[in-house]
Design goal:
The protein is α/β, with parallel strands linked by helices. The chain is 43% helix and 8% strand. It comes from Meridianimarinicoccus roseus. Pathway: Glycan biosynthesis; alginate biosynthesis.
Length: 363
């Protein structure tokens, strides 16, 4: 009997060793599930990881930064070897952190391209409500890439987002039925599946202009913007500072930073986003005209090339051309070829070289 009591007491006592072993096993399980599911949830990750691992030795002419709207530029048709480093739903804090680290790692492109959505000037993926533990838009992909270059760097001090990316399985980007998996586009710049030069495009939905499509995507996007503005009414100041940091770094490294301010959107979706801001009572706080002016001023002051969307895209007419859109906010390869052809004459010479030329008849 004493032996039995003694054993019971021993098993009930706290054991530091047991606690450590349990914690290590739990964290290993979480980390393992994160690694196993990351590529399925974020299909572009293998190519992005390959790119940042080799960025100091890759022979490249351009990098594309920011969010997924960068699929609208066909670097291959400009004769540029492009390393795409854009990430789904990326904000400017993620973009600045990644750009800084790849430059430190030896990236030396002639050009850096950003397709800037004015709504990104009001976006902070690290913003949280008081009751919310997880950030509204996952930073898994951005922290995943930064883990290769700066493993202990939280983006904009977002330690909770860093811990989430480190230990929790990655979250998908809803709505999964509408934001499609990215598939490699066959072409001369993409050979291996993990090629850092691989170009991607979004799958074509049957009708990019259907109201349900606009509403469902807006259900995901607008809470990020609304939450960011309510958490920080001065967010425009902070995102402008991040843009300035990107532009200053590019200038210091002799990189031609090209920013297209504004993005092609299906007309119905553009209207849906505006209506959501009005319904939330944020029509004055989320002022896209002010955001565009602020971004333009900040970038031009640092010597970046700023190209307004109106110089290459007629939102009144072109936004109606749904055959050019894969979904309501990304162009197809054919639509991107049209966009690129219009963009090409506006690109600056890099390092005193010739302007990139768009081959006649290219699509």
């Amino acid at each position: 009997m004493p032996s039995s009591i003694s054993s019971s007491e021993a098993s009930g006592r706290f054991s530091p060793l047991r606690a450590v072993v349990f914690t290590v096993l739990l964290l290993s399980l979480l980390k393992g599930s994160a690694w196993l599911t990351r590529d399925a949830v974020i299909p572009i990750m293998p190519t992005r990881l390959e790119a940042v691992r080799r960025i100091g030795t890759l022979e490249h002419d351009s990098v594309s930064l920011g969010a997924s709207y960068n699929v609208d530029v066909r670097h291959d048709l400009l004769g540029l070897r492009n390393v795409p480093l854009w990430l789904p739903v990326a904000d400017l804090f993620e973009t600045a952190a990644l750009f800084e680290q790849i430059v430190k790692a030896g990236a030396a492109p002639a050009y850096a391209f950003i397709m800037l959505d004015p709504y990104q000037m009001y976006q902070d993926n690290g913003a949280r409500d008081d009751w919310r533990m997880l950030n509204p838009a996952s930073r898994d992909a951005a922290h995943g890439l930064l883990s290769v270059l700066a493993p202990f760097l939280p983006i904009d001090g977002d330690r909770a987002g860093w811990l989430e990316a480190l230990f929790l399985p990655p979250r998908g980007i809803p709505p999964t039925a509408l934001i499609r998996h990215l598939l490699p586009v066959p072409g001369r710049i993409e050979v291996p599946d993990r090629s850092p030069f691989a170009r991607f495009e979004f799958n074509k939905v049957p009708d990019p202009a259907v109201p349900e499509h606009a509403r469902e995507v807006a259900d995901f996007v607008t809470p990020i913007i609304i939450g960011s503005v309510r958490a920080d009414p001065m967010i425009l100041e902070r995102t402008s500072a991040e843009l300035g940091r990107i532009a200053d770094l590019a200038a210091a490294e002799g990189i031609e930073l090209v920013v297209v301010v504004g993005i092609p959107l299906v007309a119905r979706y553009r209207a849906e986003l505006a209506a959501r801001m009005i319904a939330a009572g944020l029509a004055q706080q989320v002022d896209l005209t002010q955001a565009i002016a602020r971004a333009t001023q900040t970038l031009e002051a640092a010597g970046a090339t700023v190209i307004p969307l109106s110089a290459v895209w007629d939102t009144g007419a072109d936004d109606q051309r749904t055959e050019w859109f894969a979904d309501n906010r990304h162009l197809t390869a054919a639509g991107a070829a049209i966009f690129t052809r219009r963009l090409a004459p506006l690109l600056p010479a890099a390092g005193g070289g010739l302007l990139p030329q768009y081959p006649e008849g290219s699509d």
